[in-house]
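A quick aside before the break. I want you to see a complete sequence-to-structure record at least once, exactly as it would be stored in a machine-readable document. Don't worry about memorizing anything.
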Amino acid sequence: MKFTILTIFPEMFAPLRESILKRAQEADLIKIDLVNFRDYAESKHKNVDDVPYGGGSGMVLKPEPIYRAVRDLSAPAGSRRILLLSPQGKVFDQKAAARLALYDELIFICGHYEGFDERIRFLADEEISIGDFVLTGGELAAMVIVDAVARLIPGVLGKTSSSMNDSHSEGLLEYPQYTRPPDFEGMQVPEILLSGHHAKIQEWRRKESLRRTFLRRPELLEKIEFETGDYQLLEELVNDHPEFDSYRSKWEHLKPRSKRMKKKMNYSQE
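That is the input. The structure line, written in tokens, reads:
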């Protein structure tokens, strides 16, 4: 997968040449191209911004350099998406990362200063934000999205299960993780994780994932499609956290039917 980033501060992207993303680039799993759109400014001083019409504070990015930079990009070898980093865009999340990972190329337009000339928006397929706050530029947002999308590319993390178990991959926060030693300053690893009983461990992890999501990000539960096996785990969580009961309508349909009810239904069909 190819990531093309239009920016006037290419040196800010040095972290993308480290760790997992560095290995992914060396293995040709992903490619990251940095394009300084200041190179496409035609003025003597290579200006890419100007004062806003109508007055106001700050400087606004001019359309010409960015249009020239985008038009100078090589023709797409496959599907591609042009993203404008903007606090006015739709907020990026894990579902967006999975959707964007399906493209062959993502092109990022990083703003700076007071904002974009409105005509630059017509270049983009979509505007995207990483949250309801304002940054000094789109560079940090672009790096966040590149990292989140790249790790979904097969082979980047080594094992597909590594990304599948992440927080938000299934709409839930990730379960607690532990490693050696089993006892550190009186804080012990849960015995179930030391048992070697894989089915029980998976059940514990699912339950703790549900618990952590409810306690830390309860709004996520509104979007989750619970699994059939979650019913008993959720009922146990209600005992631990009575306030969890307010979400019961979300999983009530998963309640197993009693054998007596099934038998009665069979008689009625005869």
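Two observations worth writing down. The longest helix spans residues 198-216. The longest strand covers residues 80-91. We'll return to this after the break.
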